[in-house]
Specification:
The chain is mainly α and 157 residues long. The chain has 2 domains: 109 residues, 23S rRNA-intervening sequence (de novo design (two linked rop proteins)); 37 residues, no CATH class. It has 5 helices and no strands.
C-alpha cells in the first residue's frame, strides 16, 4: 500500500529529477556552490510540495502547494540555464531534463486548476491601465484562463 502522492505520475517524475540533480550536484565544484545549493533546494521542493498538497482536503490549500511546486519546477529550469552559462552543465543534457520539467509544470498546472503558460500574454500590456491593474480591478487575475478578447473563459478544458 502506498500513500496517495506516491501514485501520482508527477510525483514519481519529480523524484527521478531529484535523483538526477543529486548526481549532477556531486560534480559541481566550489565555484558553482551557490547554484548547486539552490538547485538542490528547488528540486527537493517539487516532490515535497506535491506530497503536502495532495494531502490537503481544501481546494485552495491543494492549489497553493501545487503552484509552489510548479514555481520550483520553473526555478530548476532557470538554475539549469545558469549552470549551462557557467559551463557546469551541458546544453544537450539540460534540454533533455527540461522536457521533464515542462511535463511536470503542465501536470502541476492542471492539478492546481490553472492553464499552463509558457510565456506572457501580450494583452497584459494593453493600453488601459484600469483594465489590468489589480488595484482598480480587484477581479483581475493575470494568471487566469479568461479570454480577454472574447470576454469569456475557454470551454475546451
Amino acid at each position: 500500500m502506498g500513500l496517495g502522492h506516491e501514485k501520482l505520475d508527477v510525483y514519481r517524475l519529480s523524484i527521478g529529477y531529484v535523483a538526477w540533480v543529486y548526481e549532477k550536484a556531486k560534480a559541481l565544484n566550489s565555484v558553482h556552490r551557490a547554484g548547486r545549493d539552490q538547485w538542490l533546494r528547488a528540486s527537493q521542493s517539487i516532490p515535497l510540495n506535491i506530497a503536502e498538497g495532495n494531502g490537503k482536503t481544501a481546494y485552495a490549500d491543494r492549489r497553493r502547494y501545487f503552484e509552489i511546486a510548479r514555481g520550483s519546477v520553473l526555478e530548476c529550469a532557470a538554475i539549469q540555464d545558469v549552470l549551462v552559462a557557467g559551463n557546469a552543465l551541458g546544453e544537450t543534457e539540460s534540454q533533455s531534463r527540461k522536457e521533464d520539467l515542462d511535463r511536470m509544470a503542465a501536470m502541476l498546472s492542471r492539478m492546481g486548476g490553472r492553464g499552463y503558460q509558457v510565456g506572457e500574454r501580450q494583452a497584459v500590456y494593453g493600453d488601459s491601465k484600469d483594465d489590468f491593474d489589480s488595484e482598480s480591478n480587484p477581479d483581475f487575475d493575470p494568471d487566469s484562463d479568461f479570454d480577454l478578447e472574447n470576454k469569456k473563459i475557454p470551454t475546451n478544458r
